[in-house]
Amino acid sequence: MRYRAEDPSWEERDRFLLSNSHYAIALYAALIEARIVPEQELETYGSDEGPLPMSGMASYTPGMEMSGGSVGLGLGMAVGMGLGLKRKKSDARVYTLFSDGELDEGSVWEAIQSAGHYKLNNLGGIVDVNNQHDDGRSTQVMAFEPLVEKLPAG
Q1: CB-facing half-sphere around the CA of 19: CA atoms within 13 A
Q2: Domain boundaries, the chain
């Protein structure tokens, strides 16, 4: 990914959206490794006064592109960003990580359809297929495997 540690809002940066924001601690580790967030900020993790809340918040954390909340939002936001970047004729790319449980959300499938319709070749989606869902195993809550097989890889 293209970024500038000293300028996390650099217009030509690639974007990474963490749709499943409860994974924020992993993104914080990457932001620290990239030198966007100072390592000593880990001491504030989860506290009200620090830039590293338990669920990711773009307004608190440099380098975090979206605030999480309800599942299923990341891919739609990524499509919007990808479309905007494409219209600006930018070479920047947008990536989003979301979970297999989010595949139950209609907004995710609408985002997939929109990405195809607008031919967003600057967009990448990564699905964490961990078979975990708040209501049980993802494969038992909603059989998503036949749908995932239809998605383009790479």
Answers
A1: 28
A2: 21-68, 70-154
